[in-house]
């Protein structure tokens, strides 16, 4: 895609603060977390190591990782009052609304009363978010009250175990690690900026995260993985996908899972999740859906020079793991929580309330007409 000239719309190109957490597109297409390339992290780390890196500043030693996982495992149970709220949310609710409510209720029951508690409050949310979404999902869809205190080694395995009622295989657990690492942090994206704005008022961390979940929900941000799935599953085969995509482009429709506000040529997360999507497709005879996705990628690049962002191949990857489409974006929440919280910590450590100015475009100063004379 040609180099764009930022014109101020969407605050594009404007520096809105400092961060030591990540760089996005710094050398054209890269992504780093605290100086580590995301590819390196995805190849060599588990998600809990990356969460430790993002939240505490360094990759853990083996002893630190064991201690961190043990702590998180011990925080998977949900308070009775939260379970009762989840049981009242209907089956057809949007799972991101469930996440938002679950986070907010947790903030009522286990309020962060001092910033000294920010790390513990975040660890609690990291451990509890998979429990929240799966407790609601299994109760509303299957009538089952799941026991959320599993002994699974990782957050990803805990999620899949609760969802399916059995422990995942090694491949699925590995893909969850990769996926959660890829989604963990991304500088001043819309949901993270939401969290930082909220933090800048010195609000509590549950309010910051609840607001961020609301921002992530939209199809222009985290919701794109679900929208991409809805599109690709309607195509019969790659040729049908090509025809469908060309029609959408002709009608000037936005195609979810493509394009990016910062990256210009590629999203470095795409090649990584695409590789795992292909691997998973072979496992479940999903080659047709994978080939459809590849054709969509080719058509968008050929026609528009638009590339797949992190969301596009996540759709097929999650689908091949049997994850219901409506739970795709909540997985993003379970991961991005690390980035959001670290940004809240950073904002709090060097705070000034975020309060930009607006260019006024309304009427000139005028007098109130008495009500009887209006109309
Ligand atoms: C994890 C994430 O959140 S990644 C983002 C997930 N979101 C999506 O996949 C939604 C689809 N993509 C989009 O809507 C956009 O590409 C965004 C929101 C990601 C970025 O928005 P912007 O920075 O405003 O896009 P950008 O300035 O690069 O757009 C350039 C042109 O390409 C078009 N374009 C960008 N993305 C797409 C797309 N996915 N489908 C069709 N056209 C597109 C724009 O409409 C614009 O056209 P115009 O110049 O005629 O107005
Ligand atoms: O940075 C953005 O604008 C969106 C994105 O890719 C992310 O949040 O992961």
Automatic annotation (TrEMBL):
Q: Which residues form a coiled coil?
A: none
Keywords recorded for this protein, A-Z: Transferase, Tricarboxylic acid cycle
PROSITE patterns the record matches? CITRATE_SYNTHASE (PS00480)
- The reply on keyword Transferase is yes
- Give the domain of life: Bacteria
Q: List the catalytic activities from the record.
A: oxaloacetate + acetyl-CoA + H2O = citrate + CoA + H(+)
Question: Pathway involvement?
Answer: Carbohydrate metabolism; tricarboxylic acid cycle; isocitrate from oxaloacetate: step 1/2
InterPro entries attached here? 2-MeCitrate/Citrate_synth_II (IPR011278), Citrate_synth-like_lrg_a-sub (IPR016142), Citrate_synth-like_sm_a-sub (IPR016143), Citrate_synthase (IPR002020), Citrate_synthase_AS (IPR019810), Citrate_synthase_bac-typ (IPR024176), Citrate_synthase_sf (IPR036969)
- Protein family per UniProt: Belongs to the citrate synthase family.
Family annotation (NCBIfam families)? cit_synth_II, PRK12351.1
Q: What is this protein called?
A: Citrate synthase
Its lineage opens with: Bacteria, Pseudomonadati, Pseudomonadota, Gammaproteobacteria, Oceanospirillales
């Amino acid at each position: 895609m040609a180099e764009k000239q930022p014109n101020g719309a969407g605050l594009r190109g404007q520096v809105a603060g400092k961060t030591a957490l990540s760089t996005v597109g710094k050398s054209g297409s890269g992504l780093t977390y605290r100086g580590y390339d995301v590819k390196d992290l995805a190849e060599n780390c588990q998600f809990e190591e990356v969460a430790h890196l993002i939240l505490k500043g360094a990759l853990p030693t083996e002893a630190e990782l064991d201690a961190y996982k043990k702590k998180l495992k011990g925080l998977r149970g949900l308070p009775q009052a939260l379970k009762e709220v989840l049981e009242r949310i209907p089956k057809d609710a949007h799972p991101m609304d469930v996440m938002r409510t679950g986070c907010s209720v947790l903030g009522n029951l286990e309020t962060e009363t001092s910033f000294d508690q920010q790390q513990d409050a975040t660890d609690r949310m990291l451990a509890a978010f998979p429990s929240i979404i799966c407790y609601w999902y299994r109760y509303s869809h299957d009538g089952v009250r799941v026991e959320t205190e599993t002994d699974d080694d990782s957050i990803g395995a805990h999620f899949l175990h609760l969802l399916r009622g059995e422990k995942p295989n090694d491949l699925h657990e590995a893909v969850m690690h990769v996926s959660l690492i890829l989604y963990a942090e991304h500088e001043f994206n819309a949901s993270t900026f939401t969290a930082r704005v909220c933090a800048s008022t010195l609000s509590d961390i549950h309010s910051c995260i609840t607001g961020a979940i609301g921002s992530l929900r939209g199809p222009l941000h985290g919701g794109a993985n679900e929208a991409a799935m809805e599109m690709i599953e309607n195509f019969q085969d790659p040729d049908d996908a090509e025809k469908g995509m060309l029609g959408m482009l002709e009608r000037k429709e936005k195609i979810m899972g493509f394009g990016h506000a910062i990256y210009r040529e590629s999203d470095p997360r795409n090649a990584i999740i695409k590789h795992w999507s292909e691997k998973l497709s072979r496992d479940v005879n999903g080659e047709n859906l994978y080939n459809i996705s590849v054709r969509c990628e080719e058509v968008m690049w050929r026609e528009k020079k638009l590339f797949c962002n992190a969301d596009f191949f996540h759709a097929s990857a999650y689908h091949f793991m049997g994850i219901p489409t409506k739970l795709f974006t909540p997985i993003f929440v379970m991961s991005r929580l690390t980035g959001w919280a670290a940004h809240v910590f950073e904002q709090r450590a060097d705070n000034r309330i975020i309060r930009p100015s607006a260019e006024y475009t309304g009427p000139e100063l005028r007098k109130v007409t008495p009500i009887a004379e209006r109309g």
